[in-house]
Every structure is written in C-alpha cells, then in structure tokens.
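Standup notes, structure subgroup. Blocker cleared on the magnesium ion input:
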Amino acid sequence: QVAAETRSFEAEVAQVLHLVTHSLYSHKEIFLRELISNASDACDKLRFEAIAAPELLSGDGELRIEVSWDADARTVTVRDNGIGMGRDEVVANIGTIASSGTRRFLEAMSGEQKADARLIGQFGVGFYSGFVVADRVTVLSRRAGAAAEEGVKWESDGQGQYTLEPVELPARGTTVILHLKPDEDEFLAGWKLRSLVHRYSDHVAFPIRMPKDAADEGGEADAEQWETVNSASALWTKPRTEISDEDYQGFYKALGHDFNDALAWTHNRVEGSQSFTTLLYLPAQPPFDLMMGGRDERKGLKLYIKRVFVMDAAEELLPSYLRFVRGVVDADDLPLNVSRELLQQNRQLDRIRGACVKRVLDLVEKLARDEPEKFAAFHKAFGNTLKEGIVEDAGNRERVAKLLRFASTKGEGGAQTVSLDDYIGRMAVGQDTIWYVTADSHAAAAGSPQLEAFRSRDIEVLLMSDRIDEWMLGSLREYAGKKLQHVAKGELPLDAADREKQDEAAKAAEPLLQKLKGLLGDRVADVRVSARLTDSPSCLALADHDMAPHFVRLLREAGQ
Ligand code: ADP
Ligand code: MG
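Run returned:
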C-alpha cells in the first residue's frame, strides 16, 4: 500500500494556475462548465471502453453527472460515474501539463498578450479553473474495473503542491469537491448552479442531476431526491425542424468552449448504403490555435459512431484549410473499434470527409449569396486560412477561389471585398487577363508605379498584400477561363492607337535606350520604352518566368 505523499506541481502547472485564476476572474462561473465537460468526457470514455469490456460498467450502466452543494461545508461537488482515474493517471493528468496545446498557450501568454478567458477553455486547462472560485480542491477517483481500495484522493490549495493518498471508494468514477473561497457564496445556491448548467451545459449528452431544491419554498436542498436538469440529448440526432437556433447555439458553445455564438451552421443527414450525420459550425472569431498558426490536433470535429464518442478526428475529417470548423460527425457504419491508423485508410471515411468539405463550402457560398454581413465577418476571420485551400485542395480550387475577396483599384481602399467574378464582370470587351499586383502592404500595392498604365486605361488591378498571397497565386493561374497575371509581367493590353504611339516613342528614344543599356550593363536583361508608365519616369518589369520582387524578398527573408 502506498502511503500519503506531498508532491509539487510541474513549474508550468503553477504558471497555468496563476494565469487561469487571474484571467478567468470575470468569467469565473465557467469552472462548472469545465468540470461538467470533464465528467462528460469521462462518461464518453467509459462507454467506449465498455464496448470491448462490458464488465467495466458492473451493474451501473446509467452514466450520469451529479452536481451538488453543501452550504454548511461551503463546497460545490461535481461527480461522475465515468472512467475514473488510477493513481498514476491522476498524477499524469492533473499534476502536469500533458497537452501540447497548453504549452503553446503558455508560450503565447507569457508574451505581452493578455490571457483572454474565451481562449482558456480551448486549451485543456479546464480543470484548473476550479481554483478561480476555490481555495482548496479535492479529487476522489476510482478507475472503472479497479477495486474499492484502489481509490485515490488528490488535494491541493493551488499554491504549488498537492497531496496524494490512497482511499477506499465505494463506486467507480470521479468526484471533484471545490472548497469555495470566502467571497464565492453565490455558488452555494441551487438556482444559481442550475442556471449555469442551463447556460453552459444543457447539451451535454449525459444526464446532469441535481438535488431537488426546495429553497424556493423556504426549504433546504433535498439530497434524497434528484432530478435531471439538462436536456441530455445528442442534439445532432434530432430532426432539424425540432431544433431551435438557441439549441444549436447552446450546443456549439459547449462543443467549442466558446463564449460567443457561432456564425452559421449546417446540419445534414445522409441516408443510403452508408449513413451519417454531420453538424458543422463556423465560429464567429478565429479560435486561439488558428491565430497562433497552429492547430490543436485534438479539437475541432468529434467523431461519433452510432452516438458513441470515438475520438477527436479533425485531421481525419477535414483538410487543413478548413481547420476552423467545429462540429460533430456521427457515422452509422464504421466499426466501433476503429483506431486512428485504421481511420486514415478507411474508404468510407473518404466519403464522409468529402461530404464535410462540400457542406462547409456550400454553407460559405450560401452566406456569400444571402448574408453579406455574416460573409464579411467570415472572410475577415478565415479568408486567409481559406486561401490555403487553393494550394491544398486542387479539386475544389475553383469553388474556393470564388469565395475569396480582394482589395482592388476599383474597390474601397484596403477593404477586401472584390471577388474574381466581380472583376470579370467589369472587364472590358476583349480583356482576357485578371491583373494583380503583390506587395508587402496594401499601401505599397496601391502605390505601385506598375499601376499607372492600368489606371490610365481604366483596367482594374487586384491589390494583394497578405503574406500568403504569393504562395496561393502560384497555384491560381487561371479562374473561369481567364488567366491571372502580375502587372509586372507579360504584355500590356494595348489598342491599335496605343501601339502606334509606342512605336514612335521607341524610335525617338533609341539613342537614350542604348546609353542606358551601356550604363546598366548586365544588371538588366533589357531596357525598353514602356506603355506601363504615365507619371513615373521608369519602373522595373519582369519577364514572364521571373518571380515577383515581393516574393523574392520573402524568400530571402526565409533564408532561401
Ligand atoms: P482536458 O479536459 O482539455 O483534457 P482538463 O484540465 O479539463 O483538460 O482535464 C485534464 C485531464 O484530467 C483530462 O484530460 C482527464 O484525463 C483528466 N480528468 C479531469 N477530470 C476528469 C474526470 N472527471 N474523470 C476522469 N478524468 C478526468
Ligand atoms: Mg476539460
């Protein structure tokens, strides 16, 4: 028998604790959502393991979560009869930082950036949110399948150390007891806790049970009588007509750990030789991991098989350029014992993945068509991520390109509002090229001397200044049968009168050209009279196979 012992948190845990307790203060009530979410995960895990080992349920197959409080002891307790943890698991899961996302989060937060409460839930620091309202947290846990004496008690005041001791526990699962700080009495009321469950956890798929609260009639909580306080349904399995917008939003918030409403969603059931349901959301703002240029591999899309949660499978179910999508996929016909490796080779999954991509693109197209404001918000948040699809998803290149918006010499300042179709619609008769210029900034693009000839001929030019644009343009050579071309390349569109004028000018300037060529030597390939300029005396032009100067600079920066 291992005796009680005191251990120290990993240095990083102490850091996370500090950050969480200080930055979550204005949203402190989300501790309940986080603990319930962990309890729900634990029930999911047990249900999944019990498919292969039904004895793990050992006569208590009704998975549930219980939330209770004790006004005298000043505690709030969240209990589940899910998978539970053995001693080593407790140490590994709540004494250390296992998730790589959390490390990234820490790195980011130790800079000037202020921790944003909205982001914390996404980072697996959920458990520590208990310390926002509690000055001591006790965890009692017994792994499913383990004996009563193999229970473990973990306790900490969140100041750097925790204690561990073996205890006898009558039932499997985990109990988290928060000993509230002196000024957190508001959480010692049934109505308060109940309203938080409704707000944040209504769509948890397991029943959340609370003691019947007789406080309204002046009585005490009745610990003998429990009632279910959430709707406890797998929302995506219901028909669309029975789900309100509020339900969809509530489900999204619980799923995405987001405080904000989703921007839009698409919910579909495919019946046939292979049946599956998808419920996919577009967030209103970029999730934190996206802003950091990373991708929290665990988060995004949850894969269920016949309502049983199997794994977070964003990478298997969506291409990288759609990594901002959140949601659920529930497949009827995948084998429940599917592993991540098998999943990657699964042919059925290819179909589901294809359907997910199609649904998301359909949804964004619908926004572009019918809801310009929402589409603008979407484009602002995810337009640059979507551009990766031009390179990554050749099969949908044209569809993705149609959804992109750019700044333009005929647009409003730097606003990215002009679509390729808008551009084509404004083309003059006979124009077969979509012209663009790339630069480090919008100002540089808009001020480029290359544009003079285009302005004077009233030819529109797209102004590209996002870092990803050059890379994207490398794969976007054509759209709707029109060539895309940098203004510094190729032949300018000249009419006959123009051409005559240019020939004359070239003849007149011949002696000057010779002189310049002599002076510049082999630093240039040629010196020519150009129709590109109206005000500036000269500019650099590129041969068709040259890289744009801005791209050359980017490569140089990257050490190429
Ligand atoms: P996350 O839920 O994102 O993994 P948390 O900080 O909320 O991060 O929880 C950390 C880990 O502690 C979980 O991944 C899980 O392994 C473990 N854990 C927390 N609560 C429970 C619980 N009620 N039952 C079983 N394991 C739990
Ligand atoms: Mg959690």
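Discussed briefly. The radius of gyration is 30 Å.
Next: hand off to the docking folks.
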